Amino acid sequence: MKLTKLTAALCASVAMPAMATELEVTHWWTSGGEAAAVAELAKAFDASGDKWIDGAIAGGGGTARPIMISRITGGDPMGATQFNHGQQALELVEAGLMLDLTDVAEANNWKEIVYPPSLLDACTVDGKIYCAPVNIHSPEWLWLSNKVYEDIGIPVPKDWNEFVATAPQVEAAGKIPLALGNQPWQSNLAFGAMQIAVAGLDAWKAVNVDKNMDVAAGPEYAKVFQAAADARKLAAKSTVQDWNQATNLVITDEAAGQIMGDWAQGEFQVANEVAGKDYTCLPGLGLNEYISTGGDAFYFPKLDDPEKEAAQKRLAALLVSPEVQVAFNLKKGSLPIRGDIDLSAANDCMKKGLEILAGGNIVPSGDMNWNPDVQKQAEDLMVEFWKSDMPAEEAQAKWVEILKSGL
Fold this sequence. Notes:
With 407 residues, the chain is α/β, with parallel strands linked by helices. The chain is built from 21 helices and 13 strands. The chain has helices at residues 5-11, 32-47, 61-73, 90-94, 102-107, 110-113, 118-121, 146-152, 160-172, 184-199, 201-208, 213-216, 219-234, 243-251, 264-270, 306-320, 322-332, 348-358, 366-369, 372-386, 392-405; strands at residues 22-27, 51-56, 80-84, 124-125, 128-129, 131-133, 141-145, 176-179, 255-259, 279-283, 291-292, 296-299, 362-363. It is globular, with a radius of gyration of 21 Å.
């Protein structure tokens, strides 16, 4: 078999298979941009001599994760599965159901190349590494349709405050100010993005890192809840379900903007939209250009099959390799988990994210700060808040009580 540059590089650290080994890989990447990105992973794995069996689960992580966990705990594990960085797979690791990848990580110097280190820390339990991080995703972005504002005859907003101030003109033109899907995690994501943008980094750290409940109940966060109340009004006429449908409202100039993670870039790219020309991206909603370093990682359930276990380790090494990091993240719109690769082909929005990352303006994601129970309760509260007329003050008080339950 003729080796490609990629497979030749991998030979140094992971033995090549004598024949193709099939691995079912489950994930929730089903939108146009996501499908294009995951196809790069499958293509690379197939080219290396193994076989990627795609196990996409529609409906997003909230739908997919329970299915994945049920299969693993029920004795029907897949070869590899996507989770977000953080504590989502912690109980599975502690139960001894996940493959230890420490040998792969050491052979490929993951501790030296993965940046920021918190990504690998999130994969580490009792000193052992259990997942392969593949990207950095930040949710704190405001995406804007340039044409909506050009047609109205006003400048494209430079930050959230200008976006809110221009909303009456957008509505008068018959457009939706803010596109928002009805999936629970989307309203929760919007609120999370507002935390750093509106309250500022110091207040965010006080609440989410230092667990200071006085700040959570204080005036800085009162402004966050008021911003969420404003956003609720702006999104009142957005009736779509999925996040990518909301993104499409911006792409087709039916909506002025959307708060969504940097993965929205993949949808703009599939639609042949050009960053800076057709759309504008504002990290930190244009107010505080910090990004949280969450993202996606692959875990590998234990299989009673030495041949498949060897293939699992080959796939883990492949996911972190330079060539795959470039191909995957350019399509996904996410940032790579290593800084030693060439991303000269990145668009303007991706370059903004890379600059923020290089400047160190980063914070850990919510998955790394709060346990799954607190996150689920907070998400449920946001769903109730966005679908009702609950006062901002009441929502803030309920939110603080949820956080206190996780202390």
